[in-house]
Structure formats: structure tokens, C-alpha cells
Amino acid sequence: MLLFFFVLIRDQNSVMYKMVCCMSYRNADLINYLSGFVTPGRWHNMEKIIQERTRYITVVLEDIFQPHNASAVLRTCECLGIQDVHIIENKNKYNVNPDVVMGSDKWINLTKYDQNNFNTPAAIDKLQNEGYRIVATSLSGKATSLDEFEPSESKCAIFFGTEQTGLTEDVLTQADEHIKIPIYGFTDSYNISVSAAIILYDLLNRLRKSEIQWQLTETEKEEIMIQWLTKSIKRSDLLIKKFLSSNTKY
């Protein structure tokens, strides 16, 4: 595939930016070039893991109050192969807790919604426009039990709310479906990170056993592989500049 490459280029006045804007190349060529700068073991692992990545299910964290819980969810998502996580910041700002994520945020794509005082509508609109079914985690009476929820109907954006009050009314009223984890004890809810782990493991496990096309497209795999390689190689910007110089078409 031909692609204009903009990763790791922030200065639009730089020579590198100008070179990129006037050339194109196959993603596979850049991947082949950069893969020579990681160990064979790391490269083999990347090739294996990319086959298990998915965007069929994505996770949305709405205004999480305790950052270590949000960071634990990120780690779970990466372990299960979920590529995209969306962070809605309304009252609470989120910063990655490095002691909890254990580097997992390096391998997934985070999208933050923080431009307004209330950012939930923007996240819902974006995900609906991308074809996601909005699924709210809830304890309401109309919520479907996790074991009865069918993930194969369409791709899902699973919303998790703040530990104190749960999801906002905007999510609850606009959601296409509500799901809940059955509880058999006196306590009326699970910790958010535990809830996310249970729900996501169950849904991903069922998807992987189904006939649904849950994996990334070849184009998505190539784009993400480039991201991973650039984050794995020291001064990858210099290597990319060298690659661009030898492949520039004016």
C-alpha cells in the first residue's frame, strides 16, 4: 500500500516534514527496513501479536476518578489484544500510572476527549460515526447479563464509568445496549478494573472462537506495526529520515 508518512513528525517547518509531504512508498518497504533494527526475537513477537489485535471491540473510560484503575484497564486491554482505548475527561484528568500499566500504553492507541467541559457527546458521536454499537456497563434492571450479550452482532464500544456514580445519563440514554456482570454476593458492584477484565476477557474469548472477522485489516496491521517499530528503536526518527531521503520522489 502507498501511504504518506507523518509519524513522529511534529515540526511542519522541518526538512523531514517537507520530504515526507512530497513522497510516498509502500508501508511494507518501511516495515522491512525498520525491522532490521530490532532483535529477531522482538520482531517475531511483533509479527505474532499483530495477528491477535482487534478494533472490533474498543473500550471507553468515562471520567475515571482513580488513575490507577484506568491504568489497570489499559494493561488489561493490551494483554487481551484491544488496540484502541478512549479516555473521556470531564471533571477528572487522566495521566498514565507507569507502575500500573507496565509499559502497556506503548502498544495501544489512546484517544482523549478533553476539549470541552463535557466531552461525552463528542466521544459517542465519533464512535457511532465509525459504526460502533454503544454498550453501557450498568446495574440497571434493563441491562443484559454478560453471558446473554451477543458481541458478534456488530462491533462494540464498551463504556465504563467512574467508580463513584457510574456512567453519565448521556451514555445511559444513548446506549444501544446495557450489559452487567452477574453478582452472587452482598456487594452490589465490582471494581472497575475487575469489571473491565471480566467483560473483555469473556467477549474476546467468544469472538476468537466465532466466524466473525474481528482481526485488523492488512492496512491497519501495517500502520500499527510501523508505530510499534518506531517506539522500539532508539532515534528511529533519524532512521526514518534516512529511509525517506533514499525513497523521495520529487
Quick take:
The protein is an alpha/beta fold. Helix content is 42%, strand content 14%.
Q: Could you walk me through the main structural features you see in this protein, from its secondary elements to its overall organization?
A:
The protein is α/β, with parallel strands linked by helices and 250 residues long. Helix content is 42%, strand content 14%. The chain is built from ten helices and nine strands. Strands 5-4-3-8-6-9-7 form a seven-stranded parallel sheet, with helices on both faces. The relative contact order is 0.21.
Topology:
Elements: E1 2-3, H1 15-21, E2 25-26, H2 27-34, H3 40-50, E3 57-62, H4 67-80, E4 84-88, H5 98-101, E5 109-113, H6 120-129, E6 133-137, E7 144-145, E8 156-160, H7 169-174, E9 177-180, H8 192-208, H9 218-232, H10 236-247
Parallel strand pairs: 3-4, 3-8, 4-5, 6-8, 6-9, 7-9
Antiparallel strand pairs: 1-2
Q: Provide the low-confidence segments as ranges.
A: 1-24
Strand composition percent: 5-15%
Fraction of residues in helices? 40-55%
What does the main sheet amount to? 7 strands, parallel
Provide the residue-averaged pLDDT.
88
- Strand neighbour order, sheet with most strands: 5-4-3-8-6-9-7
Per DSSP, the total helix count is: 10
Principal-axis shape: globular
